[in-house]
Specification:
about 190 residues
């Protein structure tokens, strides 16, 4: 594959990145070709030594998405990072998507319990408004206790959510380093 073919395929495969990032990456690979040509290699040899432009683009996009989560950890950025890492290989579908779904389910369930417990007194008041003849003080006291417990659960879920997010981003980085060529031991 010639330099022009390689760079064209790389550019089209980098569609998930901004134009500035794509230009920087393309300039880096043009330098690889320039240095290789100075060393006496052909364009085909250089492109063969670099590897598949599509795979290079997948790795670069995945790295960019994971780094973007570190800058701003929104739900959208996390989902894009997960999908980018899954796109690196079929095996990642199992080892990334499975834990992601499990952790997301646990976090969502914890938040649902905390919020529903906090809303318990409001639900008792709605019940009293609809059916005043069945009001009991026990319901009110239990709902207030649940609201207090719900506040503790919500506070715990705030810290748990942050810890799980940070841990999962580290897991994505580790997975990305393994896919890129193995973990380097210091």
């Amino acid at each position: 594959m010639t330099k022009k073919q390689f760079l064209t395929k790389l550019n089209t495969s980098l569609k998930g990145l901004s134009s500035d990032d794509r230009e920087d990456i393309l300039q880096d690979f043009e330098e690889h070709f320039t240095i290789g040509l100075e060393e006496g290699k052909t364009e085909e040899q250089i492109s063969a030594s670099l590897g598949s432009p599509q795979q290079i683009a997948k790795e670069l996009v995945a790295t960019h998405r994971v780094e973007k989560v570190n800058e701003t950890s929104t739900a959208g950025n996390i989902f894009r990072a997960v999908w980018a890492v899954i796109g690196l290989g079929f095996f990642n579908l199992v080892i990334v998507l499975g834990p992601f779904i499990a952790l997301t389910g646990l976090i969502a369930a914890g938040w649902a319990v905390g919020i529903s417990f906090v809303a318990a007194p409001l639900l008792v008041l709605i019940n009293v408004a609809l059916h005043p003849q069945i009001f009991e003080l026990f319901d009110l006291f239990v709902s207030i206790a649940l609201a207090g417990l719900g506040l503790f659960i919500a506070i715990g879920m705030f810290f748990a959510t942050r810890a799980v997010k940070n841990g999962f981003v580290r897991y994505l980085k580790y997975n990305l380093s393994v896919v890129k060529g193995g973990v380097k031991h210091a």
